[in-house]
C-alpha cells in the first residue's frame, strides 16, 4: 500500500462527494494532459530534426528501429499484405503506441508527477537511442528526441496542476486552463508543421526536376512489333511499368534525399585504385546505355506483384569497376546506400552480366527519389536484395566470407539469382462463360522465355501465344483464349526457359531464396 496515493484517493473521493458532476474527469484531464505533452514533444522533435538537418525525428527513429528489429517472417507478411504502404502502416502503429503511452503517462502523472516525468523521459530516451544506434546514426541524431523529451516533461509539469484544478471543480481559472491547453496544442501544431516545412529544405525534388540526363550513346533496342499486347488484351500488365506503378521495397522510413551536385560514389576495399566518381563524371562517360530490364523482389509470392519492368539509363558496371582495378579475390561487392543499407552483389555478376549498370534514369526521367535517386544499381537476373542498391554511395570490394550484407544477416541466401516465373494477370477471379482470354507475363532473366503453357482444371497443358521477345532480360507477355463453362475453374500457368528448363511445380515460400511453384487461380464463371 502506498499512503500518499491513498490520501490522494481519499481526497478525490471527498471532492467527488462534494461535486458529483466531475467524477472521472480527473482521469480524463490527466490523460488529455499526457496526450498534449506528447503532441508538443513530437512537434518539437520534428522541429529540431528540421533545424539540425537530421532525418531522425523521434517517430522516424523509432520506426526505423522497429524495421531493424522486426523478424523476417513479420516483415514478409507486412510486405505481402501492405505492399508499398507498409511504412505508412508502421508509422501509424508507432503513433498509436505513442498515443497509448501518452495516455498512460498522463494517468501516472495524476498520482505521481514523478512517474509522468519518467514516462516522458523514457520516450525521449528511446527515441534518442533508436536514432543514435541506427546504421548511419551520429550523436547529432539524438538531439530531436532529447529536445522532444525535455519539451514533453515541461508541458506535462506545467499543465497538470492546472488541468487537475479544473477537474477538481468549477474554478475561476477555467479560462486560463483552457488557454494553457490550447496553447500547448497550438505549439505542437506550429512546431510540428514548421519542422516538416524545414525538413523540406533537404528534399531533392527540385534538384531532380532540374537534372538533365545525358543521351544514351547506346539506346535501347527498338521493341519488336507486337511486343506489348497490353492495349489489345484487357487486364494484361503493360510491357514497361510506369514509375508510379513500379513496386517499391526498402527499409527507408524517411526516403534518403541525396543532393546530385555533391553526390559521389566511392569505390574501396580490394581494388588497386580506390577512388570516387561524381554524377557529372558518370554522365560524361562515353558509354551511357539504355536497357529494358525486369526487376524482381525475392519476397514476391508466386503470382505476386513485386516485379516491374523499366527502361533504365546508366553506365555499364563492368568497364567502370575494371578502371578501379577490382582484385580477383574479391567475390563480393558490398554496396552501401546513404541510409546504411548494405547489399552484397556477386562481383562476377557485376563484371560479366551484360547490361549490369549504375542507373540514373528510369523511363526517360531521372530516377524517382523513392527508387534510388540519384544513382542505383541494376543487375539483370539477380533479385533486388543482392543487386539493386538504391541511393548508392559506396561500393566496397570484399568477400562473402568476410562480410554479410543486411539481408544475409537476416537469413536470406547470399546469392540471389531470379527464379523463372510466370503469372496470370487476367482473368482475376470472375469471367463470363464462353471464350475467356487468359493472359499474363513470364520471366527468366538472362535466358529468356521459350514456352508458356496453360491448363484448365485437369485438362491438357496447352501452349500459350507469346508476344515477340524484346530482350532476354525483360518479361514476356503471353495469352491464350480458352473455353470456360459456367462454374468454378482452376487455371494454372507454367513457363520453360530458352535452355529448356521448366519452372518447378514444387511450392516454396519466398524465404530464403525466392518462391517457386505454378501460379494457379480460381475463376468463377457465370
Ligand atoms: N538502399 C536500399 N536499396 C535497396 C533496398 C533497400 O531496402 N534499401 N531494397 C532492395 C530490394 S529488396 C529490392 S527488391 C529493390 C526494389 O527496388 P524498387 O523499390 O525500386 O522497386 O531495391 C533494393 N535496393
Ligand atoms: Mo526485394
UniProtKB/TrEMBL annotation:
<dbReference type="InterPro" id="IPR005066">
    <property type="entry name" value="MoCF_OxRdtse_dimer"/>
</dbReference>
<dbReference type="GO" id="GO:0006790">
    <property type="term" value="P:sulfur compound metabolic process"/>
</dbReference>
<dbReference type="Pfam" id="PF00174">
    <property type="entry name" value="Oxidored_molyb"/>
</dbReference>
<dbReference type="GO" id="GO:0043546">
    <property type="term" value="F:molybdopterin cofactor binding"/>
</dbReference>
<keyword id="KW-0472">Membrane</keyword>
<protein>
    <submittedName>
        <fullName>DMSO/TMAO reductase YedYZ, molybdopterin-dependent catalytic subunit</fullName>
    </submittedName>
</protein>
<dbReference type="InterPro" id="IPR000572">
    <property type="entry name" value="OxRdtase_Mopterin-bd_dom"/>
</dbReference>
<dbReference type="InterPro" id="IPR014756">
    <property type="entry name" value="Ig_E-set"/>
</dbReference>
<feature type="compositionally biased region" description="Basic and acidic residues">
    <location>
        <begin position="496"/>
        <end position="505"/>
    </location>
</feature>
<feature type="region of interest" description="Disordered">
    <location>
        <begin position="1"/>
        <end position="20"/>
    </location>
</feature>
<feature type="transmembrane region" description="Helical">
    <location>
        <begin position="114"/>
        <end position="134"/>
    </location>
</feature>
<feature type="transmembrane region" description="Helical">
    <location>
        <begin position="146"/>
        <end position="165"/>
    </location>
</feature>
<keyword id="KW-1133">Transmembrane helix</keyword>
<dbReference type="Pfam" id="PF03404">
    <property type="entry name" value="Mo-co_dimer"/>
</dbReference>
<feature type="region of interest" description="Disordered">
    <location>
        <begin position="491"/>
        <end position="526"/>
    </location>
</feature>
<dbReference type="GO" id="GO:0008482">
    <property type="term" value="F:sulfite oxidase activity"/>
</dbReference>
<feature type="transmembrane region" description="Helical">
    <location>
        <begin position="77"/>
        <end position="102"/>
    </location>
</feature>
<feature type="transmembrane region" description="Helical">
    <location>
        <begin position="177"/>
        <end position="198"/>
    </location>
</feature>
<dbReference type="GO" id="GO:0020037">
    <property type="term" value="F:heme binding"/>
</dbReference>
<feature type="domain" description="Oxidoreductase molybdopterin-binding">
    <location>
        <begin position="254"/>
        <end position="406"/>
    </location>
</feature>
<keyword id="KW-0812">Transmembrane</keyword>
<dbReference type="InterPro" id="IPR036374">
    <property type="entry name" value="OxRdtase_Mopterin-bd_sf"/>
</dbReference>
<feature type="domain" description="Moybdenum cofactor oxidoreductase dimerisation">
    <location>
        <begin position="430"/>
        <end position="508"/>
    </location>
</feature>
Amino acid at each position: 500500500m502506498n499512503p500518499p496515493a491513498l490520501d490522494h484517493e481519499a481526497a478525490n473521493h471527498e471532492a467527488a462527494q462534494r461535486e458529483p458532476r466531475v467524477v472521472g474527469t480527473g482521469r480524463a484531464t490527466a490523460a488529455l494532459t499526457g496526450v498534449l505533452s506528447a503532441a508538443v514533444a513530437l512537434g518539437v522533435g520534428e522541429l529540431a530534426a528540421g533545424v539540425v538537418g537530421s532525418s531522425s525525428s523521434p517517430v522516424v527513429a523509432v520506426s526505423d528501429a522497429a524495421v531493424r528489429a522486426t523478424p523476417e517472417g513479420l516483415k514478409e507478411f507486412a510486405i505481402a499484405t501492405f505492399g508499398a504502404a507498409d511504412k505508412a502502416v508502421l508509422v501509424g502503429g508507432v503513433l498509436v503506441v505513442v498515443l497509448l503511452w501518452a495516455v498512460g503517462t498522463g494517468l501516472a502523472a495524476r498520482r505521481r508527477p514523478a512517474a509522468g516525468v519518467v514516462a516522458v523521459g523514457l520516450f525521449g530516451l528511446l527515441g534518442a537511442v533508436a536514432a543514435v544506434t541506427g546504421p548511419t546514426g551520429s550523436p547529432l541524431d539524438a538531439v530531436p528526441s532529447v529536445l522532444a523529451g525535455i519539451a514533453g516533461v515541461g508541458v506535462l509539469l506545467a499543465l497538470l496542476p492546472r488541468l487537475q484544478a479544473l477537474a477538481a471543480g468549477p474554478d475561476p481559472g477555467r479560462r486560463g486552463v483552457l488557454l494553457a491547453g490550447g496553447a500547448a496544442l497550438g505549439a505542437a501544431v506550429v512546431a510540428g508543421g514548421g519542422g516538416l516545412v524545414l525538413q523540406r529544405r533537404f528534399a531533392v525534388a527540385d534538384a531532380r526536376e532540374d537534372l538533365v540526363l545525358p543521351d544514351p550513346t547506346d539506346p535501347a533496342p527498338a521493341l519488336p512489333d507486337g511486343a506489348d499486347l497490353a492495349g489489345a488484351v484487357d487486364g494484361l500488365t503493360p510491357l514497361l511499368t510506369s514509375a508510379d506503378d513500379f513496386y517499391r521495397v526498402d527499409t527507408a522510413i524517411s526516403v534518403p534525399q541525396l543532393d546530385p551536385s555533391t553526390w559521389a560514389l566511392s569505390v574501396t576495399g580490394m581494388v588497386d585504385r580506390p577512388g570516387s566518381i561524381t554524377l557529372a563524371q558518370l554522365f560524361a562517360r562515353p558509354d551511357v546505355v539504355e536497357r529494358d530490364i525486369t526487376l524482381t523482389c525475392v519476397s514476391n509470392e508466386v503470382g505476386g506483384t513485386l516485379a516491374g519492368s523499366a527502361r533504365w539509363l546508366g553506365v555499364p558496371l563492368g568497364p567502370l569497376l575494371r578502371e578501379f582495378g577490382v582484385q580477383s579475390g574479391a567475390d563480393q561487392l558490398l554496396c552501401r546506400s546513404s541510409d546504411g543499407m548494405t547489399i552484397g552483389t556477386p562481383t562476377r555478376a557485376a563484371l560479366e552480366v551484360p547490361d549490369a549498370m549504375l542507373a540514373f534514369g528510369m523511363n526517360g526521367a531521372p530516377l524517382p527519389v523513392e527508387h534510388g535517386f540519384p544513382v542505383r544499381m541494376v543487375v539483370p537476373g539477380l533479385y533486388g536484395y543482392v543487386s539493386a542498391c538504391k541511393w548508392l554511395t559506396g561500393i566496397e570490394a570484399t568477400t562473402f566470407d568476410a562480410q554479410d550484407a543486411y539481408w544475409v544477416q537476416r537469413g536470406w541466401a547470399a546469392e540471389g539469382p531470379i527464379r523463372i516465373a510466370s503469372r496470370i494477370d487476367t482473368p482475376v477471379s470472375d469471367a463470363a462463360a464462353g471464350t475467356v482470354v487468359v493472359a499474363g507475363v513470364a520471366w527468366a532473366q538472362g535466358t529468356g522465355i521459350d514456352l508458356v503453357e496453360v491448363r484448365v482444371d485437369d485438362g491438357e497443358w496447352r501452349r500459350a501465344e507469346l508476344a515477340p521477345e524484346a530482350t532476354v532480360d525483360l518479361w514476356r507477355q503471353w495469352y491464350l483464349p480458352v473455353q470456360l463453362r459456367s462454374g468454378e475453374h482452376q487455371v494454372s500457368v507454367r513457363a520453360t526457359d530458352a535452355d529448356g528448363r521448366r519452372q518447378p511445380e514444387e511450392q516454396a515460400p519466398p524465404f530464403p531464396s525466392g518462391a517457386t511453384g505454378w501460379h494457379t487461380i480460381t475463376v468463377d464463371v457465370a
